[in-house]
Amino acid sequence: MPIIISADEIKKELPNYSPDKAEEFHHESATKADKLFTKALRESSYKDVILLSGGTASGKTEFLSTQLNEKDSIILDATLSTELGAKNKLRQIIKAGKNPIVYSVIPDDLKRAFIAFLNRDRKFSDAHFYKTHSGSRKTLLWIAQNYPDVEISIVESSYTLDEKLQFSQIQFDNKQKLLDYLTNKQITEDGIITYVSFIK
Amino acid sequence: MQKIPYKTDQNNPAIRAYKEAVEKGKKNQHVLPYGEKWAVTNLASGTANHVFNDPREAIKHAEANAAQGTAVFIHGSDGRIKERKDY
After folding, report:
1. I need a surface site. Which of A102, A189, B5, B66 has the fewest CB within 10 A?
2. CA B82/CA A149 separation, integer angstroms
3. Nearest residue in chain B measured CA to CA from A123
4. Could you list the residue range(s) of the whole structural domain that residue A89 is in?
5. What is the pTM of this model?
6. What helix, strand, coil percent values describe chain B, rounded to 5?
7. How many folded domains does chain A comprise?
8. Which residues pair with A106 in a beta bridge?
9. In a domain, B3, yes or no
10. DSSP element (H, E) containing A37
11. Average pLDDT of chain B to the nearest whole number
12. Alpha carbon A51 to chain centroid distance?
């Protein structure tokens, strides 16, 4: 069974927390998640450490609950939206003698992810959506370019017409094709705003 | 590039919560800039349901037609959300 570290789960245990004020509690829960992550690296015998990556409401937690819930590994359910944050985590994992694996969940349609984001219990400003989706893609490309030995799994989340949330692993013939894919997936915050608010 | 689908349990509580958020969200209305005008849309359809010259008219229309349990999102001219009103 995995050791799962999630800032969103930690929030629920904080005094006076309510989902409609989730953003106010994010800094505190993220700090606690960092401490738990360090502790797990120090105390767990698991060799594999999974870092989840992807913008908010891309389907990471849903992927974790259905596909990674039996892995003997430490799993950090985060967005990996900054290069500095990712660098620190990777450095910690490697220093602990463990094996980092990145699972990135990328929605096939940002508009659908935006709709889910705006209507779930946890409330964040829309800026959080733009920032995490743009930042996580930038960071992922940076990891692929700077940590060639780190295993990266790309997972596409999609929502079917008959209302099913599905996941597919995207496999690449070689590293260059992965880099090309990630380069094509880059999008700025303004690009996301334009995309999600575009109407015919 | 090859896509290998995972088998996903649609009754998993996390999956159900996500789907509920999407389905609920499709019923909300957004007041968005639409060229020089303003549109009321539900986002999911990707089409302007009603178009107004004045954003205040668009907001008034969205509010008047908001169903119980839905929300109206008012966007600024830069596309960012300025206000959310729950009904």
Report:
1. B5
2. 43
3. B84
4. 3-196
5. 0.94
6. 25, 35, 40
7. 1
8. A156
9. no
10. helix A26-43
11. 94
12. 7
Helix (H) or strand (E) holding B37: strand B37-41
Tens-digit pLDDT profile for residues A127-155: 999 999 999 999 999 999 999 999 999 99
Residues B12/A62, Cβ–Cβ less than 8 Å: yes
Query: What DSSP character marks residue B27?
Result: T
How far is the C-alpha of B71 from the C-alpha of A119, rounded, in Å? 9
By C-alpha distance, which of A140, A120, A152, A145 is closest to A186?
Answer: A140
Task: Write the pLDDT tens digit of every residue in A80-118.
Answer: 999 999 999 999 999 999 999 999 999 999 999 999 999
Q: Domain containing B31: what range?
A: 25-86
CATH number of the domain to which A192 belongs:
3.40.50
- Asked if the Cβ–Cβ distance from A62 to B26 is below 8 Å, we say no
Kindly identify which residue of chain A lies nearest to residue B15, measuring between CA atoms: A62
| Number of separate domains in chain B | 1
Most B CBs within 10 Å, among A60, A61, A62, A174, to test the B interface: A62
pLDDT digits (tens, 9 = 90+) for A60-75: 999 999 999 999 999 9
What backbone torsions phi and psi does residue B18 show, to the nearest 5 degrees?
-65, -45
